[in-house]
Amino acid sequence: MLYEFPFNERIRTYLRLEHLLRRLSVLVPREQPLDHHYALATMFEIIDVSARPDLKTDLLKDLERQKQILNAYRDNPHISQATLDDIIGQLEGCFTALHEQTGKAGQELLEHDWLSTLRSRFAIPGGTCEFDLPVYHAWQHLPPTRRIADLERWAQSLAPLAEPVYMLLRLLRDASGWQKVAAVRGVFQQNLPQGRTFQLLRLRMDPNTHLVPEMSGNRLLASVRFLETTETGHLKPWAGDVNFEIALS
Description:
CATH topology of the largest domain: YacF-like
Shape: globular
Number of strands: 8
Strand order of the largest sheet: 1-4-8-2
Number of helices: 9
Distance between the termini: 19 Å
Largest sheet: 4 strands, antiparallel
Helix content: 40-55%
């Protein structure tokens, strides 16, 4: 089982967007109206998360930073230049598509009258009943192929945002290897080297332990505390030793 903990707000936003975008990619191809209801709800969540005014700027800066890092490996005999060119080309493609996008991510969805009305009703518990939104009720009873086509068209406006998020998080994860460690009496701490900024703590553990890791960290220290679930559903500290793996990037 894999857990991830972001060290800053920027990576936290990227992870939230990735979580929602992957959920959307699973829901859209399905055929049931209920799945498509939650696909629309997920689109609206993506719009809310991406409303940060500095998100586009952060993504563009990170794409350019990654490109500069990779360019430093040019002519390195230990690096496949074809693979390097391919990754840099993907970064440049993401940068261009995002830079050319006008307005916020999903701007077309915000300007779509029907979707805008629908979004406001989603915020109301039970607000999409057929007597509230008969036009939405009718849409849900269209053939699945028609609904899927609509969702794919609307989701396309999120593509310039999705690709940079996927790309940057993939590069971040690939930048570190796994290290086997142990939490003594349920607690693990690791001092972080000075002069280096970490952005993501990843933890991999056996799900059969039925333990929950509570992760925290700052520029000096990464910490993990393991908890167990009681019969009443509450969490309490685990007093035993736990073997697991971590990766810091």
